[in-house]
Write a structure and sequence with these properties.
This protein is α/β, with parallel strands linked by helices. It has nine helices and ten strands. It is about 40% helix and about 20% strand. A seven-stranded mixed beta sheet has the order 3-2-1-4-5-10-7, with helices on both faces. Strands 6-9-8 form a three-stranded antiparallel beta sheet, covered by helices on one side. The two termini are about 25 Å apart.
Length: about 270
Amino acid sequence: METEYIHGYSTTEQKRLLGQSRILSEYIFRNIDLTNCQHLLEIGVGVGAQTILLLEKFPHLHITGVELSEVQLAQAKENLAMFPQFAKRYEIIQADAKKLDNLDTAGIDAVLFIWVLEHIPQPKEVLAEVRRVIPTNSLISITEVFNDSLFLYPPCPAVMNYWRNSIDFQYSIQGDPNVGARLGVLLSDTGYRDIEVTPCIIHLDKRSPHQRLTFLQYWKDLMYSHLDSMIQAGYTTFSEWEKVAAEMDILMENPEAVFYYNPMQATAKI
């Protein structure tokens, strides 16, 4: 059974995920090293956005991807079909990451999660299942949100209020918008070893104006992707969003603007 997804499954959102993967790739993949891995299990492929990047960045890699949502799975297959050069290097199947008994794990030597555990009510169950079925000594790499780390300058009260409401909303649908801060504990409690956890710092100011502008626009789009779900659940209103949008537009024009956010990344051995 699928849990509620904070961003929804609209065509607009599916396109946003593709753009997001490109914008975030230079930060996320600074610390993800799969050069010594041959067969990757990607948990939660979504629309295939990360899968495409992985196939590009690691040309030796074969990927088995699992995705629970039929809607996302269909879009992932469509997106990947646009890259016929990768056709023999991946397969994507529908599966619940908490029940991987039917997965062929032969040869898998690495497992990747990117923005997945935040949406799962019981992330320990998924980590325990992966550890149960994947061969010993395989690498696991996780990238996750830590939404309380957001900082903007000059202060943006409407944005920060909306952001806090989005955090509360995600908790209300059994997600965890700060799960990144708990990665070490989750991995330790489920029996992984050689655990390392590091912040993936995104700090943008006038030293990189183009990147800052790109990222602020991305962040505005990210917040907008929550809007319909948050309105329906009573966590915001459209008039509140208009204040958020106005503040973000002003911030994008301010040469003194600062953006700081640090997702968390963890690696471990099974």
